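Tutorial, part two.
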Amino acid sequence: MADTVLHQDVRTDATAPVDFIRRFVWKIAVATLLLMAVGSATRVMNAGLACPDWPLCYGQLVPSQQMNLQVFLEWFHRLDAALIGLSAIALVGLSWWYRRQSPPWLPLASAFAFFLIIFQGVLGGLTVTQLLRFDIVTAHLGCALLFFITLIAIGMALLPYEGTGTARKLALVSLSAAILVYLQSILGGLVASRWALHQCFGASQLCLVMNSHIAGVVPPTLATLAVLIMTWRTPAVHPTLRLLANTAGGLLVCQIALGVATFRLHLQVEPLTVAHQAVGATLLGSLVAIAVLAWRDVLSTPRFSPSQANIARG
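Running the prediction step on this input gives:
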């Protein structure tokens, strides 16, 4: 009995750093989702150049005299980004400090996330100095989403999980769905950064860009539905995968509804536009979470049963 208690204590001490890092990663991911929502609000409120300089705002850390709603949005967006950057540095430090108690891939994954946030900061500065050039703004969103899903992947990879051996097909389908949603999000960012919807309705320009985004809804929608159907039709699928798939299905319905409402109202209701991007990012994150767990299921499940392995060995 004493040996059992001692074994449990040792196991708890060994996994405590990993649990702490995982919780820390989730907090950074939530802050990143908030950052993208504030960035979307900054764009739809025409506040992208509310602070004419960078990295300071009107040459100050806190531009109290110039503060209004637009300046606050841009200033808070930069503040949140700076805090996330510091958190990314802390994540790298924790990963290397506890590298012996952590999976061997964690320090490299944390370093990759840190590289992404540095690159994101550079793109953020260029969006101001280059006066919101559409390709830089789109790349800024794409890098933010890539950083976000990297955090999701790290968090899900650190999650205690025992595969059931039933997610082999789901792994590839969920990964494909995540890629399609990511590409659709980038295309949506291009539509937003070029104001293609306004241009098409107002001057019949850039309608191809807008229509490409509308038609582009179909592939990720079908792929996400395929993920949902596969989890429903697999009785022995892990409950966590089933919960994530149901969440993705609900987010998909919400995202389509928000997209239709945003289109019909011609982007005149700013909260709808912000919610559309936030829900899209959350949908992407849920699909990445499914893909990581499904691939863990595949990699942790032996290809042969014990009896088959004995036969193979002769």
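The chain has two domains: 1-160, 164-314. In part three we will examine how such features are distributed along the chain.
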